[in-house]
Amino acid sequence: MRTLSKNKTVLWKVSKTGTTENTDINGDYTGEIITQYSDPEKINLSLYPYSGEIRVQTFGEEADLDMVSVSNRSILNKDDLLFDVEPTIGDTYEETYTYKVNMVKKSLNTTNYGLSRRV
What we know:
Elements: E1 9-14, E2 16-23, E3 29-37, E4 41-49, H1 53-59, E5 67-71, E6 81-83, H2 93-96, E7 99-106, E8 111-117
Antiparallel strand pairs: 1-4, 1-6, 2-3, 4-5, 5-8, 6-7, 7-8
C-alpha cells in the first residue's frame, strides 16, 4: 500500500558527477571548486512527512529531516538533489533544489530515504 503509483509524487533528480576547479580569465585557478551534476531525470516517489514512531526508529531521534520517501528499488544516492518542477540545464542546482537526500537506509524489500528541504 505504501508505494501505489497513484500516491507517488513526480520529482526531478540530479546527481553529482564530479568537480572542477574554477579559473579566471587568465587561466589561473581561483581556488573555487565547481560541482558538476547530471542532466535532470524524472522520477516518481512516495513522500511522507517525517513524523511518527516508525520514522524515528528508522532514521533515529536526532535526524534533521523534513520528508521520508519509500521505494521498492534503489534509485537515489546520498546528496542527490530533488526538484518539484523541472530544472533547466545550467541552473545553479544548489540554490534551486526542493529536497536533498541526507540519509539512505536499505532494508530487505525497500529503500527508505531521509530528505531535507532547502532553507
